[in-house]
Design a protein that fits this description.
single chain, 271 residues, alpha/beta, five-stranded parallel sheet, 11% strand
Length: 271
């Protein structure tokens, strides 16, 4: 390819490029939303109730501006989408607080809610997911996935915005957790690092098929557990041990654990 052909190639790509707000702008917006909801994340504080209301309105207008830039959604009524999102935000906020409670009750190392809100990657990933999922359900294109990938890059926790997750989710440590698009998670579920809730196989024709497992209420998934398949159901109150590989359903109240064979070969004495 000559230099002139290269310039032409780039020019054509620029013309076909779908405009979306930059990741920095989108990240600032979600951080502003979380800082508004959780003052533990910021230094300032509102002086009056009117300031709270005005800031909430500014966040809604900023979302409209971000959606307007997203040309992939020319047919969307972005003002209506933003209004519905912020009308529903108190419910999103309630769910986030159930997650904080679950982490505080599930992790003996968690001293207080301030520490969880400010420092816990599990909470950050779930909070980003809660907002992304609400936008996903409003058929907002691209931005929900960008939000959860921002959280992924910060925390190592990969939650698809299309996943369905109940209240009181606790992700402890979290690094390496993967939760696929069609996963369904009930209430009071606890997930440790390295857990994968994935698909048995990947094919583009399966886009509308449930490919990921269902985890019912009060299930604990220990580190490194891999649970695959859209028809796989982990019944309520199950405990799934570390490094378990599961591709079939487990009845409620069951315990599943992996039995590794470990050999210790002692060194011969040098004396």
């Amino acid at each position: 390819m000559s230099t002139e052909e290269f310039y032409l190639h780039i020019f054509k790509k620029q013309k076909l490029h779908e405009t979306v707000s930059s990741n920095a702008v989108i990240e600032k917006w979600i951080n502003d939303v979380l800082n508004f909801a959780f003052p533990e994340r910021s230094e300032g504080a509102f002086s009056t109730l009117e300031e709270v209301k005005d800031h909430f309105t500014r966040l809604e207008k900023e979302l409209v501006r971000i959606l307007d830039v997203t040309k992939a959604c020319d047919d969307c009524n972005n003002e209506v989408v933003a209004k519905v999102f912020f009308d529903d935000f108190p419910e999103i906020y309630r769910k986030m607080n159930t997650d904080i409670t679950a982490i505080q009750q599930g992790d003996p190392a968690a001293k207080n809610t301030f520490e969880i809100i400010r420092a816990y990657p599990g909470f950050i990933a779930i909070a980003f997911y809660r907002i992304a999922n609400a936008l996903f359900k409003l058929d907002v294109p691209l931005i929900p996935r960008l939000l959860t990938e921002l959280a992924h890059s910060k925390t190592g926790i990969d939650i698809h915005p299309g996943a369905t997750i109940g209240d009181y989710l606790c992700i402890d440590h979290g690094t390496g957790v993967v939760i696929g698009e069609t996963t369904i998670i009930g209430n009071h579920v606890k997930i440790y690092q390295g857990v994968t809730l994935g698909a048995l196989s990947v094919d583009k024709l399966m886009v509308d098929v449930k490919r990921h497992p269902t985890i019912e209420d009060h299930v604990v998934l220990y580190a490194g557990a891999t649970i695959l398949g859209g028809e796989t159901i982990i019944g309520k109150h199950c405990t799934i041990g570390g490094n378990v590989w599961l591709t079939r359903s487990v009845p409620p109240y069951a315990t599943v654990y992996h039995q590794p064979t470990i050999k210790v070969i002692e060194a011969k004495s040098k004396t």
